[in-house]
Amino acid sequence: MDDKYKCTKIKEIITHNEFNKTFVLDHSFDEAYPGQFAMVWLPGIDEKPISFSAQNEITIKKIGPFTKKAFELKEGDKIWLRGPYGKGYKALDKPYYVFGGGCGIAPLKFFIKKNKATIKTVYLGCRSKTDILFLDDFIKLAEKNNIELTIFTEDGSFGKKGMITDTDEEFSDKYNYAICGPEMMIKAVAEKINIPKQTYVSIERYMKCAVGLCGECSFSGYRVCVDGPVFSYDIVKKLPHFGSKRRTKTGELIDM
Amino acid sequence: MNKHLTLNPPIVNACGILSYLDVFERLEKTGANFGAWVPKSIGPFEKQGNPNPTIYNDGNVMLNAFALPTHSIQSWINEFENTKLKKPIIGSVWGTKPEDYQNIIKKVDKYVEAWEINVSCPNKEVGEKSLMESMTEKIKDIITPLRNTTQKPIIAKLSPNEDYITITKSIIDHVDYVACGNTLGPGLAIDIYSKKPILAGFAGGMSGDAIKPKTMKMVNDIYKIASKKDVKIIAYGGISKWQDIVEYAIAGASIFGVGTALMHKDTEQITEYINKMWTSVENYLKEENTSFDKLVGCLDG
């Protein structure tokens, strides 16, 4: 198996807000499934792991020099990807509850679209209405497929005012749970659900090779690129690095 | 008398692969039976190494140009202090002058069972004047004083790119092992749509199955010198199946490093893979009615 780049063109750019854009690609990565990522390369700039939001779609959050450069790309421009990589969300043996926060919403849109019939409930949590990526898609998906959709915004500009953890729903082991978002949100939501063996969460760490060799993305010894990025919360909750430590570009282990 | 390690099995990770103690611990917990662990090279100053892409795998050969990302000696010591590893650690050290190697070895010596002296990294950072270029002249000066720095076995990791026979002869009385070898090249991979080099570091050391004949020859060439001096050989270079280990043993190696072959494997897959590899070597020894010691260097021709 090789790790050659697929050079493809950007078919369409969806600007969600100041910090989030989705790039629809000419090429579809048909083998990609939700929760997996690609290494996205801008020649002469850098290469970063980005989650798929569909088989022909990646959603990028502007956070540093690489993503800033990506935001300058226009429709018709070339973009280079290798992958798909990693383990995504597990096959469905029970209906799912889905919890998304921040740009973690993007891979979950892919997850829900692929598994419409087996999604029971979707919770989204954002600071404000403009931060809710794919809001229209979620509303349509929920209506068509009889999915319960609950949205929390911290400023109350859409849905319920509050945090995603403010739900008073009781969670049962008749369901599986998928969470994607900032690590602190993952922890808060997973603790609230409290069914770790049926909860799957996506973890992010700085990545170099993305093929399991360099060890840079180690998360308490699990290499996120090949062992993850999606893990069972039953594993994650016991790991000392969870919510606590990450490695920098030099390899140094520091507090998050 | 030279000092040698007893590793069970004599299989290690290649330096720069898996890299960190927490990764090794996870593999040990899962049951991966490596004989020792080689953490990433410890160096004299902190550096990030090259930006991505740091690797390129075209399916035949892998190129890497990490260019020695290095964190502080103190943060390494913190990791060593807290490790629960059961298998021995072979420390790896890089530097640009003899004092670098001596200083690092002195500070970290108590945490490791042997020292692999990296004098052969073919990569450098973008904009870096040089890292280990023209090391040939310096290798003797780096290696020779180390007997006074550490009592632990000393492994010289040499490059297949340089005149390794002359280098080996110049250091053979001061080492316990020669590691053959670091990555080959460096080589260049080009992207046809951007017309740019794929690796951010421009060129990168080559590894994987394709380089095996080159390092096989290196092992055998060096074995002919080393075996007369009680110096053993560690083989790195395209080991991906049990037969490769047997071939390298016949050529003269007694310890075997695996790197590129671990690509795309998760923790459980590495565990299954590595454990099966040594069992298969043992089956071969039984079938051939021979022993590992008899096999080492028995090349007939």
Describe this structure as you would to a colleague:
- The complex is a heterodimer of chains A (256) and B (301).
- Chain A is α/β, with parallel strands linked by helices and 256 residues long.
- Chain A folds into 2 domains: 6-85, Translation factors (Elongation Factor Tu (Ef-tu), domain 3), CATH 2.40.30; 96-250, Rossmann fold.
- Helices cover 18% and strands 34% of the residues of chain A.
- Chain A has a 7-stranded mixed sheet, with helices on both faces. Chain A has a 6-stranded antiparallel β-barrel with strand order 1-2-5-4-3-6.
- In chain A, β7 (96-101), α2 (105-114) and β8 form a beta-alpha-beta unit.
- The longest helix of chain A has 11 residues, at 135-145.
- Chain A starts with 5 loop residues before the first strand and ends with a strand.
- With 301 residues, chain B is of the alpha/beta class.
- Chain B has one domain (11-295): Aldolase class I (TIM Barrel).
- Helix content of chain B is 31%, strand content 17%.
- Chain B is built from 9 helices and 13 strands.
- Chain B has helices spanning 21-30, 73-82, 98-108, 139-143, 164-171, 212-226, 242-251, 267-287, 292-295; strands at 11-13, 55-57, 62-64, 90-93, 114-118, 154-158, 177-180, 184-188, 190-191, 196-197, 203-207, 232-236, 255-258.
- In chain B, the strands form 3 sheets. Chain B has a 7-stranded parallel sheet with strand order 1-13-12-7-6-5-4.
- In chain B, β6, α5 and β7 (177-180) form a beta-alpha-beta unit.
- The model of chain B has no long low-confidence stretch (mean pLDDT 96).
- The chains are: A alpha/beta (256), B alpha/beta (301).
- The A-B interface holds A 1-5, 7, 39, 41, 43-44, 46-48, 78, 80, 87, 207-209, 211-216, 218, 220-223, 226-227, 241, 247-253 and B 16-20, 22-27, 29, 40, 46-49, 51-59, 64, 66, 69-72, 75, 78-79, 191, 193-194, 196, 198, 200, 259-260, 262-267.
